[in-house]
Amino acid sequence: MERIDKRRNTDLRPVSFQCGFQSHPAGSVLVTFGGTRVVCAVSVEDAVPRWMKEQGKSGGWITAEYQMLPSATETRTEREAVRGKLSGRSSEIQRLIGRSLRAAVDLEKLPGMTFHIDCDVIDADGGTRCASITGASVALELAAKKLMAEGKLTEWPLLNRVAAVSVGLLQGEGLLDLCYVEDSAADVDMNVIMTDAGRFVELQGSGEEATFGDDDLTTLLGLAKKGLKEIFALQEAAIKSYKI
Q1: pLDDT band with cut points at 50, 70 and 90 for residue 84
Q2: How far is it, in rounded angstroms, from Cα 104 to Cα 71?
């Protein structure tokens, strides 16, 4: 099957990280997956949520917010703030981002701190949640490095890096890193979130008026692992090349 952008089924779209994209956050990055671009930023607050205090829970917390700019898609979408309510999709995605990053951090080593992760989609062409998680992991590591250099953290809190990628079945073939056209037409689509230690954080997979079997799942996970290995290498290179 010929893909719309001429990629092989096993190819990622071009993935890049522009570290230090914003001036004020402790860590920030513009992450690009093909035509999808997301600004991921980490701001640090010297306080924890009230529920942590009430439960006597030690350490710190990581939380996330996700939104798409009105002009991120071909047809303008009204800001959710104007409607006065988050969409179910945005709410689900930001919870996913938070869960994914918390899985890779020792929260006990963030004493009395909350790390706020903001993911703003400026261009959407499929895979925005995967790009957000992948970019947020880089921004979080940059923030931790800065706080360590400033003496605000005394122990390295990150256990692993995290990244995510989409895979799917279209016309019976497995595809890696689906763009919007492919994602909207896929018979099966899945988002795979993993650590660089090879452990799964979360799998989100469903058939769109279709089913899939063990062989299909094996194919999709194999594609995801291949793509994530490449993404982890790109994360590593971007972080190493950026000077705090």
Answers
A1: confident
A2: 32
Q: Where are the domains of the chain?
A: 15-241
Under 8 Å between Cβ of 94 and 64: yes
Cα–Cα distance measured from residue 124 to residue 72, given in angstroms and rounded to the nearest whole number: 5
- CATH number of the domain at 15-241, out of 3.10.180.10, 1.20.5.420, 3.90.550.10, 3.30.230.70? 3.30.230.70
First to last CA, the chain: 44
Assessment of whether the complete model's pTM goes beyond 0.85: yes
Q: Give the residue carrying structure tokens 């925005």.
A: 128
Tens digit of each residue's pLDDT (9 = 90 or more) over 197-228? 999 999 999 987 789 999 999 999 999 999 99
Mean pLDDT score, 65-77 = 91
Using H for helix, E for strand and C for coil, what is the string for the chain? CCCCCCCCCCCCCCEEEEECCCCCCCEEEEEEECCEEEEEEEEEECCCCHHHHHCCCCCCEEEEEEEECHHHCCCCCCCHHHHCCCCHHHHHHHHHHHHHHHCCECHHHCCCCEEEEEEEEEECCCCHHHHHHHHHHHHHHHHHHHHHHCCCCCCCCECCCEEEEEEEEECCEEEECCCHHHHHHCCEEEEEEEECCCCEEEEEEEECCCCCCHHHHHHHHHHHHHHHHHHHHHHHHHHHHCCC
Longest dimension (CA), the chain: 56
Give the separation between CA 70 and CA 74, rounded to whole angstroms: 10
What tokens were used for 184?
Answer: 């909207």
- Residue keyed to tokens 């020792």: 106
